[in-house]
Amino acid sequence: MVVLTKGELEQIALPAVQRASPPPPAAVPEVDLAAGDAAAAARAVAKACEDHGFFKVTGHGVPPHLLARLEAAAAAFFALPQREKDRAAGCPFGYASKRIGANGDLGWVEYLLLAVTAAGAAAAPGSACEGAEPSCFRAVLDEYVAAVRRMTCTVLQLMAQGLGLDDRDVFSRLVLDRDSDSMLRVNHYPPAAETRRLTGFGEHTDPQIISVLRSNDASGLEITLRDGTWVSVPSDTESFFVNVGDALQVLTNGRFRSVRHRVMVSSARPRVSVIFFGGPPPRERLAPLPGLVDREGGRRRYREFTWREYKNSAYRTKLADNRLCSFETMATS
Ligand SMILES: O=C(O)CCC(=O)C(=O)O
Ligand SMILES: [Fe+2]
Questions:
Q1: 98 three-class SS
Q2: pLDDT value at position 121?
Q3: How many DSSP H helices and E strands does the chain contain?
Q4: Lower Cβ count inside 10 Å, N or C end of the chain?
Q5: Nearest to residue 204, comparing CAs of 285, 260, 124?
């Protein structure tokens, strides 16, 4: 367990300051899960995953009062005295401030990372953060995870349908597996005294199959388009944002794009975001789905590997690194 004292925290160098103005706003594709036309939603989801690896979900059925309670509980947790938050510190799970991962990446952010078990959000067994957060926070986290995982599985089924796969559960099954390596991260970007933009969370792709994000009304999330240009994502407290992760890029033989994104802090208001990362079980063998490889004339872009293998290799990388290159075949070019 790494617990930083207040003195140590102050000594950590701040991330690089970027140019003053945010990039232009993104035209984020939107999918309404309540529109009643599953085939149209499936087509829209697949197109968004191919074009951007990113889209917004409305009509999701997660009650607004649950979102408001979660936001309030997160704000209360991060408002605790530093000493108390440090009691929940741990690696990789638990509370951390400024340090992202184990390889020197820094951001203007503090966060709580929790492993998600079949029973709901929970700290990794034996971690120091078990029981450290207020019990009201624990209850709302568990309720939130149950609701967001249900919605995530609906989205994953639409992805399979949009790809024309016979097995609609091919992705959702991995997230519902009792050994699924899923996580919940609650990020808090404190208001910065700095008038220019600070790196809150440096650029990266998410490793898992899918990430489902909800934030308060402070913007800051930015994504790249296929040509590499950055665009900013206007905040929307009533919707969820979905990212395709590395594992889904592999399963779809590169057809769905694992979107590169980052958070830049420029607001006087704190940003609070909560992200559910749906991952496969560690033993799961990941490889492009045969049906999708056939459609590309047998061209297979990634070799087979287990999720455990990917994680062991990713553990040694920096946040911005492309973690899929060591699994690419010669056929990617
Ligand atoms: O906090 C955010 O809005 C996004 C953070 C993020 O990309 C992550 O936690 O993987
Ligand atoms: Fe991310």
A1: strand
A2: 65
A3: 9, 16
A4: C
A5: 260
Q: What is the pLDDT of residues 106-163, one digit of tens each?
A: 999 999 999 998 776 665 444 444 444 556 688 899 999 999 999 999 999 999 999 9
The residue whose CB lies within 8 Å of the most ligand 1 atoms, and thus the one to mutate among 273, 274, 319, is 273
31-327: which CATH topology?
Answer: Jelly Rolls (2.60.120)
In the chain, where are the structural domains located?
A: 31-327
DSSP-assigned letters across all residues of 277-312: EE---TT-EE---HHHHHHTTT---B--EEHHHHHH
Ligand 1 atom at shortest distance from the alpha carbon of 206: 10
ipTM above 0.95, yes or no: yes
Ligand nearest to the CA of 233: 1
Instruction: Give the whole-angstrom CA distance, residue 66 versus residue 74.
Output: 12
| CA 252–ligand 1 middle distance (angstroms) | 23
pLDDT for residue 89 is more than 50: yes
Instruction: Give the helix, strand, coil percentages of the chain, each rounded to 5.
Output: 30, 25, 45
DSSP for 257-273, please give it: ----EEEEE--SSPEEE
State the alpha helices, DSSP H only, in the chain: 6-11, 38-51, 64-78, 82-86, 135-162, 172-176, 246-251, 290-295, 307-314
pLDDT in tens, 62-80: 999 999 999 999 999 999 9
